[in-house]
Amino acid sequence: MTSPALTDLQVAFHDHLLNLPSAISQEVSEGGRIGVDHRLHIYHNAYRARLLENLQDAYEKTWAYLGDETFESSALAFIEDNPPKHRNLRWHGAEFPQWLEKRFLEDLDIAELALIDWQLRLAFDGPDASPVQPAELAGLAAEDWASVGFQFAPTLFIAPIRFNSVAIWHALDQEQAPPAAESLPAPTWLLIWRKGWQPHFRTIQMVEHAALMQLQGGASFAQVCADLGEQFSDQEAASVAADSLRTWLQDEMIVGLTGMSA
């Protein structure tokens, strides 16, 4: 068990790293070519440098978009406001997109780009799930379709976006000059999930978003189709429903069936 004296030293050193009042300098022995204050300053800077490297790794495209100087100044300011709360450095930076949104109020595409970076990272090492195969749906009885619903991949993330941040991300990924930021002309949502071992993302429009929200809320696919029938002709509704289902299966987003009778 850690002794109280060692605990006190650890707390004092931790406070020093966080710019809090600390008596750690009184506990460091003099001697050598480097003074106590200089030695403590090295650790103080090393702590921030490591956290900065972690943010650069997690937000690679955001870093490229902002440039070295702006990203570093923003990241260091974020570090001061948000010291790590977990022992695993993996989770430091989760609040960075929301923090950037407040810092760059006139350039909200930056926060959206950071959101893509972070959620792709989450999807990469998120929970595993086996996708439903088309043959499994083909084997359903006619009466099953009246109540069957879908369970989606645990890595699935949906959020509204207002700017062409997806196009910006793709350009940066191809090491090309990103397009100028601009508002999207219609309501759009960002969809992120993992297919196999690879995170994927795309944008979706209002109709697909509404269907996904219904299904995630427990609605049956038949209910989704009925609601589509109130917006479109029977032929158009059937086409939209079929295309959506085909896409979800191809993208391996559906991982379970719900509403099935025993």
Task: Describe the 3D structure.
The protein has helices spanning 4-17, 36-58, 60-66, 68-81, 96-103, 109-124, 134-138, 165-173, 206-216, 221-229, 234-250; strands at residues 149-152, 157-163, 183-195, 198-204, 254-258. It has 262 residues and is α+β, with helices and mostly antiparallel strands. It folds into 2 domains: 1-106, no CATH class; 127-262, Outer Surface Protein A, domain 3 (Alpha-Beta Complex), CATH 3.90.930. The strands form 2 sheets. The chain has a 3-stranded antiparallel β-sheet with strand order 2-3-4. Helix 2 packs across helix 4 (68-81) and helix 6 packs across helix 8. The protein is elongated, with a radius of gyration of 25 Å. It starts with a helix and ends with a strand. The model has no long low-confidence stretch (mean pLDDT 88).
- The structural class is alpha+beta
CATH-scheme architecture of the largest domain: Alpha-Beta Complex
> What spatial form do the alpha-carbon principal axes imply?
elongated
CATH overall fold name of the largest domain = Outer Surface Protein A, domain 3
The amount of beta strand, in percent, is 5-15%
Low-confidence runs:
none
Q: Encode the helix/strand succession as letters.
A: HHHHHHHEEHEEHHHE
